[in-house]
## 1
Amino acid sequence: MTKKLSPWILGFVMPWAMSTNLIAHPIAYKGSISLMSMNSRDMNEIYTHYSFSPRLSLGAKFLRIEERKKESYSVFPQLSVLLHRWNQENFQANIYAYGGFGANKANDKTGTTVFYGGEADIEDRRFYLSTSFQGLRLSEFRDHHTLKARAGVAAYVAEYTEPAVWGIFQYEWHPGAEMKHQFTPIVRIFYKNALLETGSSIKGDWLLNFMIHY
Amino acid sequence: MKLQYAIATLLLTITSGPLFAETLSIHVNGMVCGFCAQGIDKNFRKESGVEDVKVDLGQKLVTVQTKTGQVLADEKIKEIITGAGFELKSIERK
């Protein structure tokens, strides 16, 4: 059935049906350990996980959020599940869900963090589309919800042994935040098992993400 | 004596596997990104019977060269490809 679907129709329908793990898949290959970090002016995230299979990973996440000169810190285990994957000759598409429960510290108080979300992506060697939704319920800080969508195009069609360079346009919606909408052009470079992303929003907010797996 | 030597050599050859190295052409679905295909390369290289691995994203092809006398079973190949998150389409042996 899926073989009859155009990959780009699938790509447009799937993302909007379901966005900050979005730099790469939350699950890598069986037996791998991944380390990723996402950083912006008001957020730092460090996440490491072990992939039991391409369908399941378990990791630990540290998250710092800064808002109106106040800080929130969260630490929690995260379980990620690949709900479905389309492996076709010229493209791959995925739907993931994930969640976690742990500790939150803010305003000199200690409480709980509940994290949940999902993401979907589709890519071939030249184009890439993804979207994710994430919710963060913090007992000692404002709850955070983020909807993110990305569209990317490769600067050139890289061979396996070459560094790959992508240009990505990212849109984020943060309901309840001061800056509800954010548009960020990003450059992504990956080579072998390392990936680096950097960009700056139209209003000058930077981001720096990296991921490595081994 | 020569006959006994020839038989012994023949038996040794039969029981110890092929005399030549194999080249496996493995066609893979979903292999569109070099970053994601690292698992295929890494896990084939972990196998003691593997001499070399080449990944060709354009042809969706993984070429594995085995060491002389070594065989890589279809089941093991499928396990590595699916374990990396891809779909095995076909295997050709030369």
Note: The helical segments of chain B are 2-15, 38-45, 74-83.
## 2
Amino acid sequence: MSTTVVEVRNVTKRYGAYTAVRDLSLMVPRGAVYGLLGPNGAGKTTTIRMIMSIIMPDEGKIALFGSQGSGKDLSQRIGYLPEERGLYRKMKVIDLLVFLAEIKGVDRRTAKQGALEWLERLGLADWALKKADDLSKGMQQKVQFISTVLHKPELLILDEPFAGLDPVNSQVMKDTVVDLARGGTTILFSTHIMEHAEKLCSAVCIIARGAKVVDGPLAEVKRKHGGSHLIVAAERAPALDAVLGDRRLVARADDYGNYAELELAPGAEPQRILQALVQGGVSVSRFEIAEPTLHKIFIDLAGADAAIAAEEAHHA
Amino acid sequence: MHKLAVVIRREFIERVRTKWFIIGTVLGPVFMGMFIVLPMLMADKGAKTRTVVVLDATTDSFGTRLTDALGQTGQVSVTRQSVPLANLEDRAGTLAQEVGKQGSLDGIFLVTDEAVADGHAEYRGSNVTSMTDMRTLSATLRGAVFTERLRREGVEPSVVGRAQIPVDLKTVKVVNGKVTGESGQSSFFVAYATWFLLYMAILIYGAQVLGAVVEEKSSRIVEVLISSLKPFHLLAGKVIGVGAVGLLQLGIWLGAGKLLLDRRADIAKLLGQSDEAVRAIGSMTLPEVPLATVAVLLTYFVLGYFLYAAMFAAVAAMVNTESEARQAQIPVVMLLIIPTMMMLGILNNPDGGLALAMSLIPFASPIGMPVRWAAAPVPLTQVAASVAILIATVAIVTWIAGRIYRVGILAYGKKPGLKELVRWVRG
């Protein structure tokens, strides 16, 4: 058994003059919850579709479960929730789930039993005999999710699984993903919302404009690219601005108004900053040595343009 | 193969379950029943006697003789009014006021000396659209004029009477040197029914494939399917599934149609027809459809359906919505309409060049050949050539359609141009 479930090596995909994915490499280890992060239009969906061999890369190689077989040949072992997801609107939910499991090679009886269990688990048991059309958007999304896990795949690929879900259903989905991961399922999911990745992922790959910005285990990414970060909340005073502007102490400061997130200058100690603030007579209400958020790392590494794109995507 | 079976089964079951299938399947025989029952009711109605006035402006006794002849048909209650030629129009105008009024006059027959001399007479009435009535009137007039002309030439009335014994030409179709039970009329009827059935079936079920592909694309379920299935399996499953529904429906219709025709005497009795009418309906000769014709019909339905379904599927894969699909399917439908427009040409001359072309050209042959086959004997070599060409075309078109489908179902946005389509096919 290979320890790498998905391996993407130097993959490039172009659409005419537009390069959707540029020389991308990533590795998803077995058992990981792997986040593919980036703003809208970064190339996440294109990458996932290439992993599923729905589209072919122009250059580079993709291997699943350590073999050269394509996503389609191995579809029995993979559950895939595309970004553009739909259902047969006129079909009964239970028939639909059984059909989608059957084309993954599950026999009818097992499929039906599994579908009923999952509908029960996600609170949709009463809807099994209703037509897909009669379900709300959120319920439809849960049905779509069930269809990706019904055949007990080893690898789950979810493209923007939380998009369009209300907070309650979003939480249900996260809990389910965590459960599956505990059960040994490898999960690769994409999102443009860094907070989701922050909570769930054991490893991430951040991409912007088709190219990789950073990847690796979450803790390692944070350690390597975080620098040292401080969160400071203090009363407004000239001395505060003086400290934040002192380039010997502070490399960068993002002032959010209620608090500021600081990145220490090389060699600077948090203690020195606290000292400077106290000496300047600033009344400090919060002083915290913090890990940087993924969002911050992303902005630092991908630059302002990507950051703006990400912001827009976030609010879209 | 198992996955293909799963796709076929879903397509079949989901369709057969819809209320449209049930309604359509039931309504088919109901309509067929109406085709049988309505003429019976009509015949009843049509047998009503008409009241006609003969306005006689002749200078001899021809008007009287025409009046007698009309009376003898038993379908016309006729009275004669003699009128001078100068007053003919005035009197006709006055009588016309009465025409069409409840229980009065149905029409006026205007006769002058011209009737015998030049063969001109005029009928003005409220029933001129009734084919039966007009046939009676014109046949009677023709007979009376014919008799009158011969009488004037000095031919004896008894000779005239014998000369008018009707001649009936019985037409019987010859196939492969054998006389069949089919009459010319029933061959025409079978050919016509064949055309109608094939045209409707290919169009209806082809359009269903179009709808099914557009639905999968517009509902965006297709990406889920494509992650588990090869596009060709999805396409083939859809086409076979819909085709199976089509065969089932056709089978039910044909079976019901046969049953209705076999029991037509009972149906007539149920409708309260007289014993005589029931016997007449029961002994009516029906066009016999030989087994070979049924085999040809089914072969060409299956091949024609595959050909057109593949094209419909490719068209559907190029578009995003149902309304776009309705536009885009027009060229495909046109391909099917062309042989339909040539239908009468084929029937008029089933051995001619047009008929031969229409039964060999692959996009026309699914309709052209069965129609020709039903109308006249076709050399088996031509049938074999036609089927071979059609099968080869189905293979090529399905291959191209499959390539277009494979790319198209995942491509959203602008409809592809010809250049882009070529790129898709080359893949």
Note: The interface with chain A takes residues 2-3, 6-7, 10, 14, 18, 215-216, 219-230, 410 of chain B (CB under 8 Å).
